Amino acid sequence: MIKDFEKTIGNMADKLKTAFIGSVDTEGYPNIKAMLQPRKREGIKTFYFTTNTSSMRVGQYMHDNKACVYFCDNRFFRGVLLRGLMEVLTDTSSKEMIWRDGDTQYYSEGVTDPDYCVLKFTALSGRYYSNFKSEDFKIE
Hints:
Shape: globular
Largest sheet: 8 strands, antiparallel
Order of helices and strands: HEEEEHEEHEE
């Protein structure tokens, strides 16, 4: 059954234009933010997003790296919550790996812009919802 989840979740990550990421603030409260879809993924375990180094979310992940990513497919009324850890990557190779033409719209100094960084999410477990049922699963 999990193999079907992997294909479906991968398709959702690739096709849906928005992903929701969660972080924990300094008072222990969850915070959710809509993001553009991941720039790159490795199966359903690792996802890479772009963001501003100066963002509130980056500060939260630096303080507490517990995180989640949620993909919601409104068309088929299904969704998946992935729980795991978020790393903030500022090294050149990570930044170059997901850089795209047009990103200077957000990061005027290009791939070396100090306000450009990569969020690397590593999933540990998840919960998939479809057809009025939910199922928990582990990610190896």
